[in-house]
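Quick one:
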Amino acid sequence: MGGQITFNRLGHPYRLRQIKKVRRWLTTAIEYHGFELGEVAIIFCTDEELLQLNQEALAHDFYTDIITFDHCVGDLLSGDLYISIDRVKENAIQHKTTTYNELLRVMVHGVLHLCGFGDKSEEEARTMRAQENQWLHVFHVEPK
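Output:
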């Protein structure tokens, strides 16, 4: 039984490049952390769509780049990652990087949450950022 990572769009027309490479990379991160890939859906949306989801599902009234819904059962990693492409573009400008690189960071951030990494405390946030940087390095040195 093999799981899968799917990419979907709500209101945003963004089309991901290198889909096969991104799938392999995220699967490698999942397996490295001791999980088996279940069903992971990555959904690209607009700021307004993610704000509405944030308000309805989490009672949070603010914009964010990602909301992760964990559906893991034991070591079978599954979940839904809702990503605002609008917010990713803004973050890329702020962090002086490309939209694509920032999107990779946000996708692996969501996967790391599913693997059990948090980011609420300062220490957790530092660990999360180090993991993101490690996995971004892996993506960029891995053959296409």
